[in-house]
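Continuing the series of single-chain predictions for the mutant panel. This is the parent chain; the variants come on the following pages.
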Amino acid sequence: MTDKDTQRDIWLFSRNIDLSVFLGSAVAALFLLAVGWQVGVLDDESPEWTWVTAILLIDVAHVWSTSFRVYFDTEEFKRRFWLYLLVPVFGYAVGVALYSEGELTFWRVLALVAVFHFVRQQYGWVALYRKRLGETESRTWWIDATAIYLATVYPLAFWMTSLPRNFNWFVENDFVQLPTLIETVLFPIYVLSLTTYFAKSAYLYFTRGFLNVGKDIVVATTAVCWYIGIVLFNSDYAFTVTNVIIHGVPYFALIYVYAKRRRETSGPVYRSLSSHWIIFLATLWALAYIEELLWSRGVWHERTWLFGSNWDLEKWKVWVVPLLAVPQLTHYILDGFIWRRRGNEGVNIAG
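Parent structure:
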């Protein structure tokens, strides 16, 4: 690390935005956990207000935010037309094939894809912060990568070796039971990896004056929230608030910052929808509401107070369920393409 590196802007977006979406989202999640403990919902299913705020307005809405990166941006959509067209088409076809083999088969595969996406997103933030401050040493990369991956993978291993739990990713039994030996072996590696990471950060600070505070916040908040939400508490409410908020809120910021940079060269509709963060979020919330209305009326038959009367689509579920899952599957898959440096030279989030 050089003196020039330590003097560069250390934030991905800005000091206020980074602290708000990475540290602030984790603080909000832990605050809501305390609220849940006080009102006595930790041992129950998530209350409706939690579902609306965390699932509808954050989780489902952040899935639709990919539209601002791809489908609302006509120039970008044309640039990789076949990729952006065929991912949802093939995703739907594969979904129908999986659902034809059994409902649980479909949900188990979708859960694995979702888990991979959640894990990779946390690594992605670490990689962006490393790039931002010019960290290129392979030795520190191994320490950082191991720490962020274990911060997510170990809680998942604990979950899958401790079934059944009082919460699921999508539906009951969407995870398969793994041997307890996996968790036993991973735990000391998990502790060692996080200890090594923060020892390395302290060493670099005290010996070179180097501090990548944003990256440290991502690793620390990921480790804390995933451990508390999955390992420490056996609670649907605890899992929901700790898992969803720190995942969705930073992604909103990423997409909105991108949309602001694309606004001047995009069409009038794109400029209008991204003209203010309230309009941006309102657009995503409207799309999320429509999707969940279709899920509720056609599949889950829940929350009639919010979505109205149900439809009898039982004999059409093999076609309907994979179709309704297309937005999230498309989001999971495309997220592995749209932020890579290779093939996205015009995207410059981290300096």
